[in-house]
Every structure is written in structure tokens, then in C-alpha cells.
Specification:
Layout (H helix, E strand, L loop, with lengths): L1 E13 L2 E3 L5 E5 H7 L6 E6 L5 E9 L6 E4 L11 E11 H6 L3 E3 L10
């Protein structure tokens, strides 16, 4: 049996940009992606602390060590610049393997979105 489990989480980062006219996705600082084990193109869930919105999109690599968190395309309507969000990645794995799996959890500085 396979189950879906938490693989990656970037906990409480601030939205730095929202670009409605982009094709879609979320741009994330490359350092945050590496620390959380999220790759470019990966499907993620976005949870907006400010308004309760939950939605899915895919990740685009942003410039390293900039703190960039930019919602693009229609997702830009689900946030405001300055909103605090959580970015979550999930993985499918065997039930027994999942019992011992340890997710990559990242808690950046909420003011700068940089690793501390």
C-alpha cells in the first residue's frame, strides 16, 4: 500500500511579489528550495496564513539568497504581498517506508525569508 506523506515544508515565509501576468506557479529562492528538498517543477500546496486560502501550483527556481517568494499567474489573486504562507511538498511512498521517513522542514527568518 502507498500513502501520501509530508516530504518538504517551508514554514512561514512572506510573499515578496505577486505577478498576475506571468504564466503561473510560485518562484522560490533557490536556497530555500535546496534546504527543503523541493525541486523546480514540483507540485506544492500553498497555505496562506492571512486569509486561509489553500491551493496548488508548481515551483520555479528563484535567485539564491534573495528571499524571493513570488506567486505568479492566477495564484497571484490568492495572496497579497506581505502575506505569510507555508509551502508544502508531498510524496507517495510505501506504507512501511513512510513510518521511518523524515521530511525536510525549513523555518526561515520570517522578516527576510532567509535561512538562519
Amino acid at each position: 500500500m502507498y500513502i501520501q506523506v509530508l516530504k518538504s515544508k517551508i514554514h512561514r515565509v512572506r510573499v515578496t511579489q505577486a505577478d498576475l501576468n506571468y504564466i503561473g506557479s510560485i518562484t522560490v529562492d533557490e536556497s530555500l528550495m535546496e534546504a527543503s528538498n523541493i525541486i523546480e517543477g514540483e507540485k506544492v500546496q500553498i497555505v496562506n496564513i492571512n486569509n486561509g486560502e489553500r491551493f496548488e501550483t508548481y515551483v520555479i527556481k528563484g535567485k539564491r539568497d534573495t528571499g524571493t517568494i513570488c506567486l505568479n499567474g492566477p495564484a497571484a489573486r490568492r495572496v497579497a504581498v506581505g502575506d505569510v504562507i507555508i509551502i508544502i511538498g508531498y510524496a507517495m511512498m510505501d506504507f512501511e517506508e513512510a513510518k521511518n521517513f523524515k521530511p525536510s522542514l525549513v523555518f526561515p527568518d520570517e522578516a527576510t525569508n532567509l535561512l538562519v
